[in-house]
Amino acid sequence: MSKYYNFRNLDIIFVDDNKNMHSLLKSLLLAMNVVNSRGCYTSEECFKCMLEDAPDIVITDMSLNPENGIDLIRRIRQGEMGVDRYTPILVLSGQTSLKHVVSARDAGATEFLAKPVSVGSLHDRLVWMIENPRPFIKASTYIGPDRRRAMRGYEGMERRQ
Questions:
Q1: CATH superfamily placement of domain 11-142
Q2: Dist. CA 71–CA 108, nearest whole Å
Q3: Which of 25-29, 76-80, 119-123, 128-132 is predicted least confidently?
Q4: Which one of 27, 71, 117, 140 has the fewest beta carbons within 10 angstroms of its own beta carbon?
Q5: How far apart are CA 108 and CA 102, in angstroms?
Q6: HEC string of 115-130?
Q7: In the predicted model, is pLDDT for residue 14 greater than 80?
């Protein structure tokens, strides 16, 4: 069981073009005591909200119209319009094939969570993001959290130094 966190002061922007998903996410976040959440239907709305008041976390779907979530993540990581490129980004998507997960990771997503989502799974993923921050990488072809996962507990001969 993960630790309990009081998320009352957490500010979250969620981006999804589905009205029903907005209601669900708002309810899930309220159940976790997240009282500062803003919902956006488009990438442009997200950027406007991020510039008005920088969030602690952005949650986005991969399927947005007219722009998709991958493009949104890349634009945030580029710091477009002056948004904070280091903002943690959680992808919440029904597109869960390895291809889609890798695509989100390679765009600069911090974490990925498959739909359908529950209070428990969302809480656990937010706790994971808080307790396991990853260094930020800026390279010629990638900007975002380190894509490598640590192999905690592995002490074999082939362990990286």
A1: Response regulator (3.40.50.2300)
A2: 10
A3: 128-132
A4: 140
A5: 10
A6: CCCCHHHHHHHHHHHH
A7: yes
